[in-house]
Each structure stands twice: as structure tokens, then as C-alpha cells.
Amino acid sequence: MSTRPQVVIDPRQQQVSQLDEAGRHAEALALLQELYAEAEAEPAPERTRYFMTMFQWKMLTENYPPASTALAAVRDDQATRFLAGEMYSGSGGDNHGSSKEAPWQRVSRFSLIVDMNRTLADPRATHALFLQLEAASPELARRHAWQALPDIVAAGDFTLADRYRRDPLALLGDVKENARSMPLFPPPGQAPRLSAELSNLAGDVRVGIAVLRGLGRAEEADALRAALLAGLPPGQLRDLAERELDERGTIHRALAAHQMTLEDRDTA
Q: What are phi and psi of 88, to 5 degrees?
């Protein structure tokens, strides 16, 4: 049997799914708004307080346009609070992560906004917010740039992306070293560190390729892709990286499928 801790699901999340399946979309949206408001009312909500709500909200937007309108309103409120200096979600008023919760344990308001914009297929909103942040606080802009870069690229601002992107192959050495001792798809109870690092590496390279092509430097873009693939050992690691370059999210989906297989085996 699995030794992983059980995640407690709010019964209302199941109600949302049932309402959505029954075509009662307005009621499902109202319940999602209630769950979201409760998370925001907590002083320092954990990311799990948002994860399922945002996932279900994303699903609802596919069948119910008012869900997108409602999410955009929530996104705009988050952006206003972020620009006012509220770096983390919740009602705690701790703008700089000085509470007992370490900053890395807090939910970054900027990351929440980026996720919402991706649900809304609105990279230009992230781009616009980043420009405002850059004008107000260049230091904070540098801190958050890695989250915004894919949307900055999608918005077509390759010059801005080029200014903030890091060495796209910086993580290659760590990935190769960790691949010697870590499984790509670990057993239950172990964090998928190698998969995460490979995803980050491929993401940096994908951004680099897009920026170089956008700036008319196609040969450099081709060379960057070749350098990544040549630098990885042949086999599953290289194959997954190549697929991730072609289709973002491939590694995440492969990991999720692996975990579901393990869960099915554990419950069999």
C-alpha cells in the first residue's frame, strides 16, 4: 500500500464536478467563487487551497464563458493587490514574507496571476503586468521574470524576454549528475526532483529557442536545441526533453500518468 499522505478533498469540490456534469454551470461557478474567497480570507493559505479550485475553474471555462469573465475579475483584483505591494496571497498583510511561514512556503500572488492568465489564454495580461512591475521595481521584476518569460515570449516581446532570460543550459550539468542516482519517475513517497529539473531545463531552452527565432537568429536557435539534446544521455531522458521542447507539459503529463498507474496498482 502507498505510504503517501492522503490529501483531504473538500466535499464541495466533488459538488462542483457534479454540478458541472449536470450542466448546472452557474451553481458550480458560485461554489468555486466561495472556495476561492475562503482561501483568500486565510492569513497565509497553502497552495493546495488554490490548486483544485483553480483546476476546476479552468475546466469550467471550457464550457461556460461566464466562468472566464469571473476569473478575469479575480485576476484583476489580484494584480491590483500585487502592484500595491502584497506579494503573497491571503489576508495576512505580510507583504514581504516576514511571517512564520517561509516565503517559499507562501503562495506568490504573481504566480497565481500567471496561472490565471494561462487559463484565460491571455499572455498579454502577464506581459502588461510585468512591464508595470519593471517600471515600479526592477529588482522585483528580475525576481519574477522566470515565471513571466513564457508569456512574454507568447506576447511577442522577444527583446524584453532576451533581457531577462538566463543561460538556457545552466541546469544541464545538474540534470546529468542527478540522472546518475535519481529515477526520472520515482516510487511513491519520493519527490520527482529529476523530472522537475528536466522540465525546468527544457523550459529554459524552449524560451531561448523562441527568443532567438523571434530576433531572427534561427541558426543560434537550432544550435541551442542541438546542444541540449547532445548534452543529455541517450534514452528516456533525452527523448522526454525533446518531446517537451516540441510540446510544453509533456514531462508533467508523463509523470502524472506514471503516478496514476502506481495508485491504481496500490489500490488493486
A: -120, 150
A 10 A CB-CB count for 126 gives 27
Residue in this structure with the C-alpha cell 543560434, named with its chain if needed:
220
pLDDT digits (tens, 9 = 90+) for 127-184: 999 999 999 999 999 999 999 999 999 999 999 999 999 999 999 999 999 999 999 9
Question: Which percentage of the chain shows pLDDT scores above 90?
Answer: 74
Looking up cell 491571455, which residue turns up? 122
Task: Retrieve residue 176's grid coordinates.
Answer: 546529468
Q: Which residues of 224-255 are buried (b: 16+ CB within 10 A; e: fewer)?
A: bbeebeeebeeeebbebbebbbeeeebbeebb
Longest CA–CA span in the chain (Å) reads 56
For the residues of the chain, what is the DSSP string, one character each? ---SPPPPPPHHHHHHHHHHHTT-HHHHHHHHHHHHHHHHHSSS--THHHHHHHHHHHHHHTT-HHHHHHHHHHHHHHHHHHHTT--BSSSS--TTS-SSS-GGGS-BHHHHHHHHHHHTT-HHHHHHHHHHHHHH-HHHHHHHHHHHHHHHHHTT-HHHHHHH---TTTTHHHHHHHHTTS-SSPPTTS--HHHHHHHHHHHHHHHHHHHHHHTT-HHHHHHHHHHHHHHSPTTHHHHHHHHHHHSTTHHHHHHHHHHHHHHHHHH-
Q: Give the relative orientation of helices 193-214 and 250-267 as an angle to the nearest 10 degrees.
A: 160
What pLDDT score does 202 carry?
Answer: 96
**Nine cell digits for residue 244:** 517537451
Task: Read off the pLDDT of each residue in 247-259 and give the average, rounded to a whole number.
Answer: 87
